[in-house]
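Hi Y.,

Following your request, here is the sequence exactly as I used it, all 231 residues.
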Amino acid sequence: MRLLGVLGGMGWSATAEYYRRLNEGVDARLGGLHSARVLVHSLDFQPVDDAENAGDWDEMARLLVEGARSLQAGGAEGIILAANTMHVVADQVAAAVDIPFLHIAEATARRVEASRQRKVGLLATLTTMSGDFYTTPFTQRGIEVLLPEEAERPEVDRIIYEELVHGVIKDTSRRALRSVMQGMAERGAECVVLAGTELGLLLEEDDCPVPLHDTTAIHVDQALDWMLTEG
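Below is the corresponding structure, written out as tokens. Let me know if you'd prefer a different format.
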């Protein structure tokens, strides 16, 4: 089993979910007492969030590159970044190390393409919804991306950053996101991508009128395939 480096802490609740899913996945695939070989570098989220709020992508990249290089130095044979939004600097992080970088949006776009869905709704932070760093893998495959209505986007962002990042689960927020997803489905979305690694803590298939793609689950599946495939 290859040693996977997990660049996490953004936020910690998503990193904990990654760790749980990676171990459950190894257990399901290998049985016995097998568990996932992972090396976790958990960043302090506040400086990363400060860089995001300032639009200082160079500083964000510096912080994440430092973490990625520490994982490589510790023996990691490949890296995942356990946060969707921070993939805004994924190219810089991937270029700074000499080991594979498993990209969450690429993995998700492949899953949607395999499902033959051509129009997706995207539920994410404001940074992810406002840039093309996340949607490019979809548009390159001819998949149209729909966003929540402009007035709804700040509330989606707030739920992620003020609640889910801290592990806070509220029924009122679940109902709010159900309404957002219903609206995207009514505008033609054939599925909804949960492009916030914490969103799967709040939402399940029954909350959406169309199929859901949980990026955390998809990313973990990609990582497991890589970990358990001989080089």
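The chain has a mean pLDDT of 96.

Thanks again,
Q.
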